[in-house]
Amino acid sequence: MTIAITGATGHLGRRVVEHLKALVPADQIIALVRDPAKATDLGVAVRAADYGQAGTLPAALAGVETLLLISGSEVGQRLPQHRNVIEAAKAAGVARIVYTSILRADTTPLILGEEHRATEALIKASGLTYTLLRNGWYTENYTASIPAALGAGALIGSAGEGRISAATRDDYAEAAARVVASPGHENRTYELAGDVAFTLADLAAEVSRQTGKAVPYQNLPEADYAGILAGFGLPAAFADILAQSDLCASRGALFDDGRQLAALIGRPTTPLAQAVAAALA
After folding, report:
1. Alpha helices (runs of H) in 182-235, residue ranges in sequence order
2. How many helices (H) and strands (E) does the chain have?
3. 1: pLDDT confidence band, cut at 50, 70 and 90?
4. Hey, do 3-135 and 136-167+192-256+268-281 end up sharing a CATH topology, with the first three levels equal?
5. Domain 136-167+192-256+268-281, what architecture?
6. Predicted TM-score (pTM) of this structure
7. CATH superfamily of domain region 3-135
8. How many Cα atoms are found within 13 Å in the side-chain-facing hemisphere of 195?
9. Which tens digits make up the pLDDT trace of 218-259?
10. How far is the C-alpha of 198 from the C-alpha of 186, rounded, in Å?
11. pLDDT of residue 56
């Protein structure tokens, strides 16, 4: 069995490789990366592959049986990039493609869901055996803002009292590794999310508890939150997408209680308190 992972030097990809090395021999793993020089520490074979450069993909996918397609990070460019990979995988004779999608991609109101929904359709139309890993929100999406919240004296957002079933990148990475390393997941779709949902007020309270500093949660109108994010240096269009995601979260779009993620990894997902402690360390 030969398993290839796209984006293997990214935040998620690196964790997938580490978990996968505990499940299969390292010589069965291929890291597909834009810059091989950044992958020398992974301890597996490395091949150059760029989602946006279709010509790099046939050689990168030669002999690959299972491909983990980690969704690209360039919002607005992901569909053509994913199409390049899917077409190259089919041409190379890849037997199975596993894709990291978004929670309830078929129905989510999040703008971020559009490219995932279209990618899922491409995968199904390709005729390849597939597994769709519909990842919920990463806890790190929120814990990354803890330093700014401590500095400003408040955690901000537009999620209201929406409950968010987030899990850590490591939780999702372990699930992906287990799926690509084992049979029994053919043509299945998994809705993956954390066991215990939290509100942003819950997150603020946990940060306050662990730091001993009062950090309240301040809920903002969507446009105001987008403006603040843009003021931090985010591109305006991406700031709008993040604020819209928060607004959707306030209406339940990021809540899920199916516990399919815990079932795949064989343990409870990482608790919020542990994720906050890691971010503060």
Report:
1. 200-211, 222-231
2. 12, 9
3. confident
4. no
5. Alpha-Beta Complex (3.90)
6. 0.96
7. NAD(P)-binding Rossmann-like Domain (3.40.50.720)
8. 12
9. 999 999 999 999 998 989 999 999 999 999 999 999 999 999
10. 32
11. 86
